[in-house]
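Deliverable D4.2, example record:
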Amino acid sequence: MSVGKSQLAYEWIRERIARREYSPGDRLALPTIADAVGVSVVPVREAIRRLEAEGVVTFERNVGARVAFVDEREYIRTMQLLAILEGAATALAAPHVTGDILTSAAAINEQMKASLDSFDPAAVAQLNRRFHAALTAACPNPDLLAVADNLWTKLASVRDESCSFTEAGARESVLEHDALLELVRDGGDPFEIERMMREHRLRASAAFLTGHHLVPRGL
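Output generated by the structure prediction step:
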């Protein structure tokens, strides 16, 4: 079996879960996926096992593979983990962030600010992802970025990104983005950058919970 074919199938399935072409509970028919990707069922089965190990897919005997459901408590725990990972990734990336990267990130944040006048949660969420991706892309630890990216895919299978922001939370986020950009631009202490990013992500999660009347239990 070609490892390349397994990777191709993995990325194909993962991308469609992230875009919500496959929703929680949807069955993943291996032959159909194999035909779409242009490979045999064997590499698709390997890709499914990999996604199962990441918690994105579940496999039940006599049922097959399905896109996983995640309860609210697991969602919250995943967001907490993302806060730690993205904080570390931003701190590690900071010394390698160029002026062009800062200019690009600042422009994305300005677009995010402008979108608040006619609040579009989906647009805000997409711009927010682009902003943080710009700041972490220079992280010299690709494994760290890969784990964080896998967690985002897992969350995307559970909740539409348009649900990630309330208007109040989005307005707070863009201000915190400005502060984060300033700290990175000034060559701030990596530990302070990590702390600021981690707390930024946790505050955004708390704003989401408050805005949607959800209470974390048993954490």
